[in-house]
Structures are given as structure tokens and as C-alpha cells.
Amino acid sequence: MSAPAASIDVAFTPAEIRPTRVAVIIDVLRATSTIVTALGAGYRRVLCTASVEDARRLREPGRLLAGERHCRPIEGFDYGNSPGAFDEARGEDLVLCTTNGTPAILSALSAADEVLIGSLLNLDALVERIPTGEDVTMVCAGTGGRFALEDGYAAGRIVALLEGSWTDAARAAERLASAYGDTYEPLDQSADAAVLRETDQTADIEFCAQESISALVPEISSAGSQVAVASVGLGAEAARAGVGIGLEGEEAVNR
Ligand code: MLT
Description:
alpha/beta, putative 2-phosphosulfolactate phosphatase, eleven-stranded mixed beta sheet, 11 helices
């Protein structure tokens, strides 16, 4: 008897994720686009936190802080969450704290054996990197726990290129994506893009709509329950080395 076909699924919000072999986290506007861009600019690691306090605790020489609340830069941080700002690395690590994207990355770690970072920027490389024959879930970060058009669109673009047994959610995402003739329109129509326009960050929409300009596929390693580390080709041990918040983080680091 042949093995059942691998499941290709989409969680339209992080709350929908079920146990899976591989999770691909998608926050097109803008957290996962920022991670891909920052690693491409030369940062060795992106340390992702859900809380601003945790991000601040990670500050040390060689680490820059980036992130947003309500799409605006956080007080005292070095950067906001505009991927276009990362044209060069000014330190070894970037600490990133965003409203939806970085919490989604952290929560996926408990549901998947392998967590990858997806965006339109690294679409082709990502599809190449996703192991064939494994259960894969595209996890949309969404906005405030609700569906975000740009993430659903990107999930559908990825699904279209993956062979396996598509769930109903995967089919719906693929149909959604196929309704658009280019990458810019679904991003531009989204509620998140409207907030970026209101906050004078319109250029980020065009930036994040670029398709397959990066060959990097960031992998996520856990450094305790409060920090997830995005890196490329480092391996879990090196990725989490020297990173930890509180007892739990230290234990994870020393394990
Ligand atoms: C998030 O994580 O909520 C987003 O990336 C918000 C943003 O556009 O900065």
C-alpha cells in the first residue's frame, strides 16, 4: 500500500495551526519580508520576540533593535519594521518585535518540527527548500487574529507550486491567489496597506510585492519560549548560542 500523499494546508490565522512537519510563516506586510531582507543585508541572526520588554532585554553590543506597534517604530528602537531600511547590517544580530508576525513565529514552534520564513521576496527559493513528501502548513500571521489578504495571497502562490493533498483551506488560498494578475494588487488592496499609507510608509508595499528577489530561506530555532531565532544555514545550536531571556531561555541555551 502506498503512503498517503503529504498534506498541504493553510492556516489563515495563527490560531488555526495544527501539528505539522513543516510550517511556513507568512507576514508579507511586513515582518517576514523584513527578516528575509535583514538576513540578506548581512545580519547573522534575527532574534524574534513577541514583547517589547523582551526585545529590550536582548539589547547588547552588536545587536540592533527593530519593530513596530501600530505600524510605527517603537520608542528607543533603532529601526521600525520597514524592510527597505535594511540595506546594510550595522551589527551582528537584529532583534525584531512586531505585532503579529513575530508572535506567529513563536507560536508555530510548538506545532511544527521545522519552521521556515516565507514572503513574496523569497518565493521561488522557499518552494525549492520545502521538503517534498512532508506535511506542510502555510501559516498566515494575519492582523489582530483575523485574515489578512496579502498573507492569504502569498500562501496561495506557494500552495500552487506544491504537490500533495491540498486541504480545503489550501484550495481556497490557491483560488484566491489565481484571481490576481500581479503581486502588487492584493497587497495594495489590503487593510494593512491602508495603514502603511496612513503612516507614510507607502514604499513598503511596493518593496514587499517584489517577487523572488532573494534566494534566502530563513529557518527558525527556539531559544526558549520568548525568543525565536531566524537564520540561514547556521544550525540550531549556533543559532541559539548566547540568546536567552530569564531562566527558561538560559536553560534552552545550555541544553
Ligand atoms: C506585524 O507583525 O504585525 C506586521 O509586520 C506589522 C507591520 O506592518 O509592521
